[in-house]
C-alpha cells in the first residue's frame, strides 16, 4: 500500500485514543434547526457511522467537523489541535480530510493530476517542506490500483470517467494526503458493488494506520459491513449511539424515522399472455451496448443490472433519446420510433429520470413549482400563455401527492436528496408517459425516501405503464422488479425472476462478473 507518512506522535499513539469531541453543537439556518445540541466523540482506529433520514443533520455535522460550516453554538475539538476548528483551512491543519458525495474532480486535469490535486495548489503541499510530486509516477499507479482504478492511464483526462470511477479517483487522495480523521459523506452513493470492496480495503488500511473514520450513509448494509459504532440523528438531535454488534438494521431504521418501516410487497405482474409490449427493443447498438434485445410489458417493472462499464447506462440513454442508436429498432406500443432527442422520446411516451439529479434532474435556480411544471407547461397554456392559476393548483396537488417537503416557492436545490428526487420524479410522471426509465432512482437517499420512491414506482406499474429500473444494487432490484436483466460487456447475459429459487444477490453478481460457456 502507498500512503502518506503519518506524523510521529500519531504513528506511536494507541488505537482507541480520542480523535475528536463535539460538545453541545448546534447549527441553525433561517427557519431550520439543522443540529440541536449534539454531543459526540470519535476515536482513532474505528469507523463511526452517522445515520439518519434526509434532513436529520448528518451531512451538516460532517461539514462542521470539516470546517466547511461553523457551529451556531457549541464546539468541535480535534485532538492535537490547539482550539476548536473554525474553518476548512484549520480543519485541514488539524488533519481532517473530507470526501464528499459529489467528488471534486477537475475534468481538464489528468487522472494523475487529480490524485495529487491537493498537493498541486500553488505548486506545494500545505507543509512547506513537501516535495514536488510526479503525477505519472509508479506511486500514482499504485494508488490507483488500491482503489480499483489500476486499468486507467495516469495521463488520460478525468472528464471521460463515469460517476463511480470519479468517486474512487477522489477517494484515492486518502493515500497521498496527510490526515488523522477521514469523513466519507455519502461517498458510496455513486459507486457500484464491485467498488465497495475497494472502499472496504481502503477503510481497513486507514483503521490500521490509526485514522478515525466517519461514514455518513443511507446504505445500512454497508454501514453494518464497515462500521464499529452507529450514531443516529433525527431532526437535528442525537437519538442514540450503538455498537454495530449490538443492534440490527430494523432497530437503526426505527431510530432513524421514529417508526418501524413496513415492508413493501412487489405488486403482482399484469397478465401479459396476449398483451402487446409497451416497449420492444431489438438488436440495439449504441454507446457500449451491443445487440441488446428485450421487451417491457404493461404493468411490468423490469430491472437492468450490471457493473460499471457493463452498458446498462448506454441502453437507458439510447432508448430515451439521450444518445442516437447506431443500429437496431425501438418500438412503442407496436409503432417503431426514431428517438433523436429526449424531447422526441417524451412525445412518443418515453420519460427518463437521470442518475445525476443535481446535474441533469432539475434547474438549480428554479423553485419546486417551476421544476415540477417544467415539462408540461405547453399543456397548461392557452394561446401560448400559461394558465397560472391552473399551474399553481396542480403544483400544490403534486407536492401533497409526492410528499415533498417545502412549498411551491422553496428552491429545489435547498432540499434533501430524497425530496429533490421526488421533485424530479413528479416532473416526469406529470407528462403521463407510457414507459419510464429510472436510472439509479434511489442513489443517495435514505430508507424512508426510498420507500416513497418504491411506492411511486408501484403506482406507475399499476396503471399499466412499463417501467425499467437501472441500478447497481442487486438487492434493490430483487425486491422491486418482476424480472431482472443482467448486462456484461454490453450484452444481456442473464434473465432472472426474483421469485425463482436460487435467485439472489449472489446469482446476479456472479452473472455480472463472470463469463460462461454459452457466451464463449
TrEMBL record:
Q: Which residues form the ABC transporter domain?
A: 20-260, 273-514
User: Keyword annotations for this protein?
Assistant: ATP-binding, Nucleotide-binding, Repeat, Transport
Entry-linked InterPro entries: AAA+_ATPase, ABC_carbohydrate_import_ATPase, ABC_transporter-like_ATP-bd, ABC_transporter-like_CS, P-loop_NTPase
- Does the keyword ATP-binding feature in the UniProt annotation? yes
Example of a GO MF term: ATP binding
Q: Which residues form a coiled coil?
A: none
Q: Is Nucleotide-binding there in the keyword field?
A: yes
Q: Which Pfam families match?
A: ABC_tran (PF00005)
Taxonomic superkingdom: Bacteria
| Name of the featured protein | Ribose transport system ATP-binding protein
